[in-house]
Specification:
- The structure is a single chain.
- The protein has about 375 residues and is α/β, with parallel strands linked by helices.
- It folds into two domains: about 250 residues, Alkaline Phosphatase, subunit A (3-Layer(aba) Sandwich), CATH 3.40.720; about 100 residues, Phosphopentomutase (Alpha-Beta Plaits, 2-Layer Sandwich).
- It is about 30% helix and about 20% strand.
- It is built from twelve helices and 14 strands.
- The strands form two sheets. An eight-stranded mixed β-sheet has the order 10-9-11-1-12-13-2-14, with helices on both faces.
- The radius of gyration is 20 Å and the shape is globular.
Length: about 375
């Protein structure tokens, strides 16, 4: 039987301020730790059984007598704290220079070129949260047909449109045009389609979001696996994050539960290689909206599903659970936070309840996965 790696990214589930958090104005951030402080209902017994409480800064969580996983705290090395940067680093591609950001909005000449490309004027061109800007500009968008362009503290060019005004497929085409336009020095990490529905003031963002990322600037674990003739199965927005590169098959999902169900279905099939999953609800629905109770509930929902993943992890499998950055819902603002991330590993044949301590760089995940699959003997492997 061929070895497999199941790599699940809990989007934004950071575990404490990174060593350089002050450089990002994020000193004191701790997404999971602060959830435990503010949400007494937060209980994660199945993650506890894999060693969650062994991690530095997470002493709030229980450590049972028998721990079956191995854990490590990983400090970020890449420049930035966004989804693309974090996922690339997880797969071994470390960004040395940050993607461009636009705290004052995009340059007027860039917006004019974009408007010429799509044949429409635009609204917005400012830093805003996605829910706030459609409240402010949604009705004007419906009346004019002009898409709403906005950004955040991350390197993103976001385009919001009502599905009855600009249908999702047409919005995706507009986003692809933006992606082609946004080259250096304006090579943002992601162009994001943000469809919404409803009527004023009850606008609702839908699950038909799409991300259009830059292709990785260096080889990744996904490339390594596919070049070796093995499979890379992608669930959630993984294919979007890697611009489709190094991926054998991809499944889009609407929410965390759909992502977990798809993962369980794929784990029940025979494949050789890597199954990589992004569960985005933590970040998109709760972190950015400062919804600590919703975030805690999503964590408990994942924890309840975890035994289904563990029981399908065979002796030739390695289950890896990690995150890409933080998004502390108790922290000022609504942006990502510069945090260390957990690495929780389980294999019935290998893991024994070890705390592997703090390591520099998320790339240890790629090195460990490659070694498990027999593709490398990299010294950065944690197993």
């Amino acid at each position: 039987m061929q070895k497999r790696v199941i790599l699940i990214v809990l989007d934004s589930v950071g575990i404490g301020a990174a060593q350089d958090a002050a450089d990002y104005s994020d000193s004191g951030a701790n997404t999971l730790g602060h959830l435990a402080d503010h949400c007494p209902q937060l209980k994660l017994p199945n993650l506890d059984s894999l060693g969650l409480g062994l991690l530095e800064g997470l002493g709030r969580f229980s450590i049972p007598e028998s721990v079956t996983g191995d854990v490590a705290r990983l400090e970020p090395m890449a420049a930035g704290k966004d989804t693309t940067t974090g996922h690339w680093e997880i797969t071994g591609c470390i960004l040395r220079e940050p993607f461009p950001t636009y705290p004052a909005g995009f340059p007027n000449d860039l917006i004019h070129r974009f408007e010429s490309l799509i044949g429409r004027r635009t609204l917005g061109n400012c830093v805003a949260s996605g829910t706030e800007i459609i409240q402010r500009l949604g009705q004007q968008h419906v009346e004019t047909g002009w898409p709403i362009v906005y950004t955040s503290a991350d390197s993103v060019f976001q385009i919001a449109a009502h599905e009855a005004v600009i249908p999702p497929e047409q919005l995706y085409t507009i986003c692809r045009q933006a992606r082609e336009l946004l080259v250096p020095p304006h090579a943002v990490g992601r162009v994001i389609a943000r469809p919404f529905t409803g009527q004023a003031p009850d606008w609702q963002r839908t699950s038909r979001r799409r991300d259009f990322s830059l292709a990785p600037i260096c080889p990744t674990l996904l490339d390594q696996v596919t070049e070796a003739g093995r499979q890379v199965l992608a669930v959630g927005k993984i294919s979007d994050i890697f611009a489709g590169r190094g991926i054998s098959q991809s499944w889009k999902t609407e929410n965390n539960q759909a992502g977990i169900e798809q993962t369980i279905e794929l784990m029940s099939t025979r494949f050789s290689g890597l199954l990589m999953v992004n569960l985005v609800d933590f970040d998109m629905l709760y972190g950015h909206r400062n919804d600590r109770d919703g975030y805690a509930g999503a964590m408990m929902d994942f924890d309840r599903q975890l035994p289904r993943l563990v029981e399908r992890t065979g002796p030739e499998d390695l289950l890896m659970i990690t995150a890409d950055h933080g998004c502390d819902p108790t922290f000022p603002g609504s942006d990502h936070t510069r945090e260390a991330v957990p690495l929780i590993m389980y294999s019935p044949a290998k893991t024994t309840g070890r705390n592997l301590g703090t390591r520099q760089g998320f790339q240890h995940i790629a090195a460990t996965a490659a070694k498990w699959l027999g593709l490398s003997s990299n010294d950065s492997s944690l197993l």
